Amino acid sequence: MAVDAEIELPTIEFRSSDLKRGTEGWNRLCKRVREACETFGCFDVVYKKISTKIREDAFELLKELVEVPVERKQKNTSPLPYHGWVGPCEQVSVLYEGFGVGDASNYDSVKSFAQLMWPNGHPRFTETIHTLTTQMEELNKLIWLMLTDSYGLREDSLKMNYTTLVRMMKYLAPPPGEYERGLFAHTDKPVSTLICEDKISGLEIEVSDGQWIKLTNLSPSSFVFMVGDPLKAWSNGRLKSVNHRVMMSGDKDRYSIAAFVIPNEGTIIKAPKELIDDQHPQLFKEFDFMDFFLYAFSDPAKHIDNGQLLYSYASLSPPVSH
Ligand SMILES: O=C(O)CCC(=O)C(=O)O
Ligand SMILES: [Fe+2]
């Protein structure tokens, strides 16, 4: 499974001057974003509106968080899959540790999390993670708007009530000279994801069968936008939900923070009718997000290739044109 350095993931800078909807700059950005999501299922967005200072602060606080005693980490639980603390283990990876903060653009949720981790709470943690999440949520909204604009759809074609789950992750450096799995290959089950990392690379995407590229040289203002399975279903298969993993080498630990879009209970994922026609028959039945999410992390799903779960859950065969 070679890592191919020839293919490069598109880097798209969102300059403030291009963010005015309807301008030529905006339309150009929309087209590039859509092409990147259709071809790669992800791209590197350079977004300087989120200050490097807030990111640095967040990573510094993450480094503080991983030092809290394990009894407190274990209090970070949730009835929802992928929402709580996961320590190093065989199923995920012995190098991986991740914390989950649900509804993290809500100040009180972050505050409750901080109170679980530190007996006296941690106002600076709460403030920083809440602010960073709010800004990442804005960036995600902007990208969704670019996608609907580029397909000539109304803004509300991709609108739902959701909360943002933030996961704060640490990957240990592998034993000297080794190249080891930090996170198994998967496609994202939330609607979409934004990831930022602290200097050390490790994220890899599968550009074609068995051909992986490592995302390197991400700038201090870079976020990786990732199309999740439900967004692929919404687009009637136009957008790709890319298989990705984290592989660790070298002698430095890696830290990353990801913001995931988790629709509220009862949200139905369905492609807008404009994206379904004779050339593009409907590929997936409409489905309840939470049912799919729970299915994707259930025991029966463990026997199915992660990238195939959307198909096993929702594919219409044969596809239906309206
Ligand atoms: O840590 C990363 O860069 C990626 C994490 C990831 O893919 C995930 O949590 O779904
Ligand atoms: Fe992921």
Automatic annotation (TrEMBL):
InterPro entries: DIOX_N, IPNS-like_FE2OG_OXY, IPNS-like_sf, Iron_ascorbate_oxido_reductase, Oxoglu/Fe-dep_dioxygenase_dom. GO terms for molecular function: dioxygenase activity. It comes from Gossypium hirsutum (Upland cotton). This is Probable 2-oxoglutarate-dependent dioxygenase AOP1. Residues 162-263 form the Fe2OG dioxygenase domain. It comes from the Eukaryota. The lineage of its organism: Eukaryota, Viridiplantae, Streptophyta, Embryophyta, Tracheophyta. The keyword Cell inner membrane does not apply. Belongs to the iron/ascorbate-dependent oxidoreductase family.
